[in-house]
Write a structure and sequence with these properties.
Blueprint (H helix, E strand, L loop, with lengths): L2 H14 L5 H20 L2 E6 L4 H6 L3 E3 L1 H10 L4 E5 L2 H10 L4 E3 L8 H4 L3 H10 L5 E4 L4 H5 L3 E3 L4 H7 L4 E5 L2 H11 L2 E3 L14 E3 L13 H10 L4 E4 L5 H6 L2 E2 L2 H10 L4 E5 L2 H10 L4 E3 L14 H10 L8 H17 L1
Parallel strand pairs: 1-2, 1-3, 3-4, 5-6, 5-7, 7-9, 8-9, 10-11, 10-12, 12-13
Helix pairs in contact: 1-2, 2-15, 4-5, 5-16
The structure holds 1,3-dihydroxyacetonephosphate (13P) and iron/sulfur cluster.
The site of 1,3-dihydroxyacetonephosphate has 12 residues, from loops.
């Protein structure tokens, strides 16, 4: 084995030895060394979302984090190439923020059910229906949808973004559950015209939502939480705000992927149930070996799961897949993303 790969393998054996089969650590350590060499040759930075599988997550990203964090890193990097280990809307956001860089996405088809749920024309139709009402768009959307929006948000700042607008009514797209969870936190009444529901003239504090859902977080139920609580009465349950509102209400804490990681790090409880994409449970378990991470691990994001060590290596080797956003759309989308970044 290459000596550099041997060092990496030994390190990962300590942190991931209980989670990942030995042959996988061994095999992927060699690919990680190839990737790290290519990264230097191409003056590239690798950004890795918290949902990356454990070996990739622990071996090649220069920066790891949630969507908000990685957007900031993409905006400020001085490297020539950004390799985004995440899904298409994330790679597009990097290009929107830092257009002079080559942005590479290792798995061309890694999409997102939320981003697929709404088109730019859908947003224009809502704007015609509710003229003058500001449009907040979740960052889990494509560039042309962002371009129709006043401001973007992520799960880490959605409440702050809505409150920053200081208007009674906002259009909040496209995640039905995130919108409902934000409405509850901000005291707004929410309606969903796309699935029936008209503005109630008697209510002056409102949100107008859309019917998009995350296909991963939609799978978690209140029964899941109750059955785990029966077996482990002292379990702390964490949910991502893309979970259905009744699931979030049943949990002890809800926050972005970064916020959930920090919560477990800073808490002393023995058992945690983290209701989000499975690999993140593994990554938290690796960082907190003294804590017991309970799993409902049938729920992997099929899109995030497309990013592999092999296709990251090939993306740098063959310069693929290059993400481009037409300049006319990029400039308008930039306004919405940049406003969000400035809020924090
Ligand atoms: P975060 O912004 O919390 O990292 O979430 C992104 C995402 O796609 C969750 O499913
Ligand atoms: Fe999209 Fe859900 Fe996958 Fe996140 S977990 S990328 S919201 S499908």
């Amino acid at each position: 084995m290459n000596p550099e790969a041997q060092v990496l393998y030994e390190e990962m054996k300590v942190s991931l030895g209980k989670l990942v089969p030995d042959f996988e650590l061994y095999y992927k350590s060699e690919i990680a060394v190839e990737i790290n060499q290519l990264k230097k040759e191409r003056n590239a930075v690798i950004l890795g979302h918290n949902y990356m599988e454990p070996v990739l997550f622990h071996s090649i990203p220069d920066f790891k984090g949630d969507s908000l964090d990685l957007s900031r890193k993409a905006a400020s990097t001085d490297k020539d190439v950004i390799v985004f280990c995440g899904v298409k809307f994330m790679a597009e956001t990097a290009k929107i923020l830092n257009p002079s860089k080559t942005v590479l996405m290792p798995a061309e088809k890694a999409g997102c059910s939320l981003a697929e749920s709404i088109t730019a024309e859908d947003v224009r139709a809502l704007k015609r229906k509710y003229p003058g009402v500001p449009v907040v768009t979740y960052v889990n959307t494509y560039a042309d949808v962002k371009a129709e929006s006043d401001i973007c948000c992520t799960s880490g700042n959605a409440i702050a973004v809505v409150e920053s607008l200081k208007t009674d009514t906002v259009i909040f797209l496209p995640d039905q559950y995130l919108a409902s969870n934000v409405a509850r936190e901000t005291g707004k009444h929410i309606i969903f015209p796309s699935i029936g529901g008209a503005l109630d003239p008697l209510l002056d504090v409102q949100m107008i939502g859309w019917h998009g859902k995350c296909e991963v977080h939609d799978k978690f139920t209140v029964e899941d939480i109750r059955s785990v609580r029966e077996q482990f009465p002292d379990v702390i349950v964490l949910t991502h705000p893309e979970c259905p509102p009744e699931v979030v209400a049943e949990s002890d804490y809800s926050g972005s992927t970064n916020a959930m990681i920090k919560f477990v790090q800073d808490s002393q409880a023995p058992h945690y149930l983290v209701l989000t994409e499975c690999s993140m449970g593994d990554n938290i378990a690796a960082a907190n070996p003294e804590k017991d991470l309970l799993r409902l691990c049938m729920v992997r994001c099929p899109h995030m799961n497309m990013i592999t060590m092999e296709n990251v290596r090939d993306s740098l080797l063959h310069n693929r897949t290059v993400i481009d956003v037409p300049e006319e759309i990029r400039v308008r989308a930039f306004q919405a993303v940049d406003r969000m970044i400035k809020i924090g």
